[in-house]
Amino acid sequence: MLFFQRYRFGRFGLRWNLRATPALREIDLDLDGTAVAVTVRRHARARRTTLRIPSMGAPVVTAPVGMSDAALERFVRGHADWLADKLSRQTPARPFEDGAFVPVRGVEHRIDHHPGRRGTMWLDEDDGQPLLCVAGEEQYVARRVTDGLKRMARADLEASVVRHAAAVNRTVTSLKVKETRSQWGSCTNKGALSFSWRLIMAPPFVLDYVAAHEVAHLVEHNHSDRFWRLTEKLAPQTPEACRWLKQQGPHLFTIGTGG
Ligand SMILES: [Zn+2]
User: Fold this and answer.
1) Domain boundaries along the sequence of the chain
2) Could you report the per-residue pLDDT of 135-179, keeping only the tens digit for each?
3) Whole-model pTM?
4) Distance (Å) from CA 84 to ligand 1 centroid
5) Distance 222 CA to ligand 1 centre (A)
6) Do 94 and 102 meet the contact criterion of CB atoms below 8 Å apart?
7) Which of 94, 124, 144, 205 is surrounded by the most beta carbons within 10 Å?
8) CA of residue 120 to ligand 1 center, whole Å
9) In the chain, what is the straight-line distance between the N-terminal and C-terminal CA atoms, in Å?
10) How many angstroms does the Cα of residue 89 sit away from the middle of ligand 1?
11) Helices 204-216, 238-252: crossing angle, 10 deg rounding
């Protein structure tokens, strides 16, 4: 049975999800290059369809039970501009600025701005306090931290993906690291993997699990028992990592400016 809940085919336009379940659970949108998955809730007592953005996590659409999937998709796609506008105005709870704390590979680092220094971003330590140092003008601090973390995320994910792909003898055609709203990773049937750069904030065993999960999809295009057995073989820390993501994952979306 196919259960491609988190699969997206193609980068642009509509994304059709093949799934064995009758009801739509998620609607994937591409808002100016940012993948946004809208969670679908059916409610017996809902009289109208409403779209809202919780302070943490993905947007939610609530619809009456009788509404068709097609009508629901039309509704959500019809509100894409509204969603893009709202999401762009959301201010992060913890912006990247001098003195702020940001987890890097699961360890809290303090952002330390060095206006006079050359370079972009580097890790350091001050009396046992890990530092994330950033050079340049103040107005670019957030951007430089985000870019630096994206580079680190890419390097760590590449290392994990290469290792896991070799273990299952599969080829990865491309690897992207980007801003996502609700997906930690995704995988197309052509072998293109993409990941959330925010995984660099999680402990390394979590990032490695997400890499293993997507690589396992190159073999098993579903979430069957066989898929989970393979994922656990690649990443024995799978149960622990899943727990971590469930409990701590949403929090990572409140840190920094993204973009
Ligand atoms: Zn999956």
Assistant:
1) 26-89, 101-252
2) 999 889 999 999 999 999 999 999 999 999 999 999 999 999 998
3) 0.66
4) 26
5) 7
6) yes
7) 144
8) 35
9) 36
10) 30
11) 110
